[in-house]
Amino acid sequence: MSLNDEIREYLLNNPHLMRSKYADTAKKFGTNYEQIRTVARRLREKNPDTEPKEKEVISFQETKTDAILTAENCTRVKSLEDLLSACQVDLDNWEVAKYDIGTYEVTGFDNDRNPVTVTMFRTKAFLKRIEPELNIKLVKQQLIEDLRNLSPKVSKIKRKRPNDRNDLHLLEISAFDLHLGKIGIKGDEYSIEIAENRLLSAIEHLLYRAQGYYIDKILFIVGHDLLNSDKDWPIPATTRGTPQFNSDYHIDMYRQARKLMIKAIDILSEVADVHVMVIPGNHDRESVMHLGDTLELYYDNNKNVKVDNSDCLMKALPYGNNLIISDHGDGPKTANLPGIIAQRFKNLWSDTVYVEVHRGHFHTNKAMKLQAIEELNGITVRNLSSMSATDYWHDSKGFIGNIKKAQAFIYSRQNGLQGILNYNVSV
Description:
By secondary structure, the protein is an alpha/beta fold. The protein is 28% helix and 27% strand. The strands form three sheets. Strands 8-7-6-5-14-15 form a six-stranded mixed beta sheet. A hairpin with a 2-residue loop joins strand 9 (315-319) and strand 10 (322-326). The chain starts with a helix and ends with a strand.
């Protein structure tokens, strides 16, 4: 069969190419535009009825949230997969909501003037745009990229210890309510980069100030409204749905938070073993639980880091005669804490002398002493400050003027709390 015969047969089988896309057909057969046009013209003159009465129509119409794909009068688009391919749909950004395929017949004639019936397809699909925070495929790809060396193996670091166990101390680093993604008011600008710099500067400062003590262990509390919101859809909002103004998409806030927490924990683990306590807040409850799961996975083979991402929103760490407890502060009332702690941590409490409860949520520094029932010890409850900026809501309510700070607490194994260190954000 000659080249012209091959081209002629191809055009008869694809009558919609009789008047268009000559360049594409020429490329397919390794020839030039003019040869294809000549063959097509001769076919049209000899067989004027070979073309279908209606021309192929393929369209992709999209809005910010939806799209409609249509293919009419087609012989080559016969399925949903064909339609998605013909419209070059990026399935990382779109998902199919519904689709429909219909057929009808068109009659033409072959070279011998015999009637030929061709089945034509009419295909339609409705798409929805995948929101960034719902794009599981994208989250998975980014997680694999960030944790390429998943759970790197880190051996136990041999550290010098004093002979007297009473010289050992626990250092608690508490940088609560960082609110990554929050937008500050004019004159109190804020961004993810500013928040990151504040946290890393606070850690560096507090570690330096704690050098006078032998630090046996570090308690690092992750969460307490680390993120400003828990979702983007249908609008940026907290876990319970309170609308928020954010500087970034939630997925970007989450990813930066993950990187920042790993960076901070790695810095701290160079000084001492780290106990990571994951405390979700009211702004980011689900996101911080997912973040805690990621940190558990990442540090699974690191002998110097332990991550507590247990289900309970109130967590405790015993250290010598101390019991350090943390919850966000948006749940139980302060006056009810002794009874709750007596039930939830009764075995731990009975073995300790000094009990501290550290809470966030209110972005202000406040401490109080609560006396439990007579046969139990009292507890000290502290509401800790935030390093985040003042946003529009707090400004409109007059909640302004609090010193932006992070704090560190130093506990002796034997004698309880020995010191409180402050890192105040530069004005």
